[in-house]
Design brief:
heterodimer; A: alpha+beta; 3 domains; 21 helices; globular; B: alpha+beta; Alpha-D-Glucose-1,6-Bisphosphate, Chain A, domain 4; seven-stranded antiparallel beta sheet; 5 helices
Chain lengths: 795, 186
Amino acid sequence: MKAIEDFTLIGKTVLRREDSYLMRGKAQFLDDLPEPKGLIHLAFVLSPYACADILSVDASAAKALPGVIDVLTGKDLVGDIKTFAPVIEIEGYRDVRRPVVAVDRVNFVGEYVAVILAESPYVAQDALDLVEVDYDPLPAVAGIEEAEAAGAPVIHSHLGDNHIFRAAFETEDFDARFAEGDLVLEEEFRNGKTAGGMIEPRGCMAWPDPVATNFTLWTPTQIPHIVRTAIADHLDIPESVLRVVAPAVGGGFGTKAHVFPDELIVVALARRYGRAVKWVQDRRESLLTNMHARGHILHIKVSVKQDGTLCGVYLNLKTNCGAYPNHPYSPTLEATGCARMLPGPYRFQTYRYDVSSLITNTCPTGAKRGTGQPSAFLAIEGMMDRIGRRLGIDPAEVRRRNTVRPEEFPYVNVVGVRYDTGSYLPSLERGLEMIGYDAFRAAQPKDRLVNGKYRGIGICNYTEVSGTGAPGWRVRGFAKMPGFDSSRVVVEPDGKITVYVSQADAGQGHYTTFAQIAADRLGVACEDVTVVEGDTSKTPYGTGTFASRGSVVGGGTVIRCSEKVGVKIRRIAGYMLDADPERLVLKDGRVADPEDAGRSLSLREVAETAYSMNNLGLPQGEEHGLEATDYYDPPMVTMANGTHVVQVAVDPEDGRVEIERYAVVHDCGRVINPRIVEGQVHGATVQGIGEALMEEIVYDADGQHLNANLLDYLMPTAMDVPELELDHIETPSIDTVGGIKGAAEGGLTGAVPAIANAVGDALSGLGVNITRVPLRPSSVFEQIRRACTEKEGRA
Amino acid sequence: MILEGETLIPANRRIVWKALNDPEMLRACIPGCKSLDRQSDTDFTASVRAAIGPISATFGAKITLSEIEPDRGYTISGEGKGGAAGFARGKARVDLEDETGGTRLRYNADVNVGGKLAQVGSRLIQGTAKKLSEEFFGCLSEKLSGASAPDKAAPPSAPAVAPGRWLVWGALAIVVVIVLGWWIAG
């Protein structure tokens, strides 16, 4: 491999080639695809109850509607599709399977009860009103505490209670070491359930070939290969007869990195009817039935010395699984993710956690940008501030005293995760400097009241898990998560390059960054590289695009694969030039011999030889063609890091939180394309502002979903976004190919705790204790009011 | 969700009570009511077509009266199912009391909505309840004032823009429990 120092295009801002069609509205999303003849349109009858027995389904009126082909219930599909469940192998996990359409019991509002097949989407919608379902409503549980309470209704009777997963971890002599601290602080943190919030709702379309033995499924997914494996498994068809294609995807954010029941259903119905089948959800269904995320209760206890250093940490985490485990991760994703990521940039080596996931009568939860990390850092970063307040040490100083020091890398954290490199302290210092932290603190009055508003500053010092490899998935129970990603790099006969990657872009800019990487490694212009992905028939198998893996694993495999092809290019060129292949250089679209300046070949000339398009033969033993395939399984995880420092003003009159200054320092190792990384940081930070201040899916005590619309599920708009002051630190990984670390989630992970801490700081003079997000004006106002009343009471 | 309120009706208590128990009167005034039939002394069934925005549905409802104190009040329980639009169910206590100028009606309803009604309409329920009740009671008041002479001189008729102040709140409770929620379906 060439030394990373001679990167030419990697590290440069290249404008995104995707934008030319995305910005002009030319992208082909699922619902823009041409529709095959004889297409069947689906609509799902959704359960209005959180828990009920289905007594009967009368579809006679719907079936009589002209244009309705059929109406199928769960019973009708039992023979077509196996009960649906992820493959999880970890102690403490208990299997829960679901019919893709409910058979005799519904367990959350929005669960599929029947599916309508019609000649047009309009008829399908009309028919929804004509299906009469007789339910016998049963008591429902929506919250974690209700689900684990004694005597709570047991949602899946074979479990005996509502626990689907429990795990525990404890370092040696935990109790003794924990007791070494001078004091113990504890707190309970909570976050609301949220949605991925992508602009394009989900949908899918399956198309059988004329004899209905081969199928193509178009679905806006981040994980086409995993979708194919899951469908083949649950429909009992060979993987070879199914092709899964992700068209342009209008945002994924982890929500689209799941396998969904409807994806199984459209393929099964295409098989049953021998016709193409399509379904597209609306906004309400998108918020109601796609995976939710968060909804955690974190009870944390820290033992500290008088100087603010941590002696030990205990975490009790409870997560809300929803009614069924998501596929392919199950609730272990957030549960183990949060507990294992909580140590973050800190040096403590005494840790114990107990995690549990509870089944409730709500929509299943799963992956969303950040996964367990915004929760983990809400807790540990919240404790850093509390330690500071309790001991009279500046919260930034508390962090300094606990952070892994530059000379300690590579560092193995308390749960055995290796931090190969990082800029934990430099990034903290830079963030503080950017926001003028010391001056702000010096000028900050004790009551925090400045010009009628409470002003405070909050810090989040975080690590960001990225590019998880096979061992990282196995340790968390993901028995069938490959971990690797792959690529095939082809030098075409005309010397142009095609790069096939096992990933699936959902807006991240893969078509630009992977082209940059291949062009860099093969010494050609970006424009000479075409990137193809999101199609199982064209790319080799791989894991897909989620959990900040695109650049680490996708980028890594494209580097490796390009270099493999480079070896063959040089071998053939060496033969043609009668030169030592080792010394040939790929540059400017040519293969040159630097020791003989006049001698070089164009890539096209080499390709023509490889494809037997001239009179030159190949060296002895050389095969025709000019391509390579690579499978790259990265390290267990690769840790990026960063720091957010936020200054807020809280208006006591209405409880509104205004972000006045926002500084982000970000270190994702080797940067491939700075502009794209900045876009990721901006987007994730804004999503974090949403989680911190406004977004929450609300269920009532009966499990009714009360805000499945974008008027009531509030997301940040341009009006809510402050100017983000960004700085990069580049500390390349020494473990990954190219030194790359991931960049997609840290913005969200950093934003939620930093904003919560800033509000907590602003209101600390009043004695308000911020433990829950989102911090909507109503809840902030209520907490201020209560604190003031208590103060008056004491006075 | 708790909905409560009170109003003064310019009719004597006996007439108000009668109206509250008159299916014909209710059928004529509940917006979108296709049928309302008395199944027994205490049970009604109703079918109401309701539409808000792009969504419309026909709701089948069962209504039961209990704790009946003639001319004084009753408790109404009901459940309405609107298929894809969801459901509404609840209970309302209605009390009538003599007062100068007519009858004071107080109601206290506890309403639960589910399905699409809850998902897209939760926050609109209070406002829509008010709007719909104004429409319903405007109609009822008009019919009442035409059909009977109150014991005392009737106050000047209410301006058309504010019929809500003349509400016959017993029937409001039915509307609140069974119909209002359905209006939220949009």
